[in-house]
Design brief:
3 helices; alpha/beta; Purple Acid Phosphatase, chain A, domain 2; 5-stranded mixed β-sheet; about 170 residues; about 15% helix; about 30% strand
């Protein structure tokens, strides 16, 4: 299963569509600050073509009613905690994000908000197992010297997976 992880498109759905067309994923996870109407984007990407998860970011005013702050789900033996990150205060560290992911029994936490890519394993609270923490950066407005980016997660039925950061030209 090929999953497109993207965040912070800020109204530039054309860039999201470009990544989608390049990758042809089996699933899309958008981690907030879409700033377009979810229904319009979902019509292009979503059911029945490709399942999509859309998260509400701090700039998603137009889609308030149909976006969630977090999404928790299981795929191939992993539990995913997806959030934009502003409510977990990720600008000040990832401890709260990891705590919330652990609270939901998730081993993978994916966030956006900072516009800076991140891929690392963080020790769980109170000696718990490590949580794989991912941020695809921003597909539209990168910060911190990064480039426009997204991530591809290849997840096998066995639960094995790899993650690759990709730059969008």
């Amino acid at each position: 299963m090929k999953i497109l992880l993207v965040s912070d498109s800020h109204g530039r759905s054309d860039l999201l569509y470009k990544a989608y067309d390049l990758e042809k994923p089996d699933m899309v996870i958008h981690l907030g600050d879409l700033e377009d109407l979810k229904a319009d984007v979902e019509k292009r990407l979503g059911s029945p073509k490709t399942p999509c998860v859309f998260i509400k970011g701090n700039c998603d005013y137009r889609s308030q009613g149909d976006l969630r702050n977090q999404s928790v789900f299981s795929l191939h033996g992993h539990r995913f905690y997806c959030t934009h990150g502003h409510l977990e205060h990720v600008n000040y560290g990832l401890d709260r994000l990891v705590y919330y992911a652990e609270d939901q029994r998730c081993d993978i936490a994916i966030y956006g908000h900072t516009h800076v890519p991140y891929d690392g394993f963080i020790d769980g609270s109170f000696g718990g197992p490590k949580v794989h923490v991912l941020n695809p950066g921003s597909i539209a407005l990168p910060r911190g010297g990064s480039s426009r980016s997204y991530m591809i997660m290849n997840l096998k039925d066995s639960g094995a997976y790899d993650v690759e950061l990709k730059l969008l030209q």
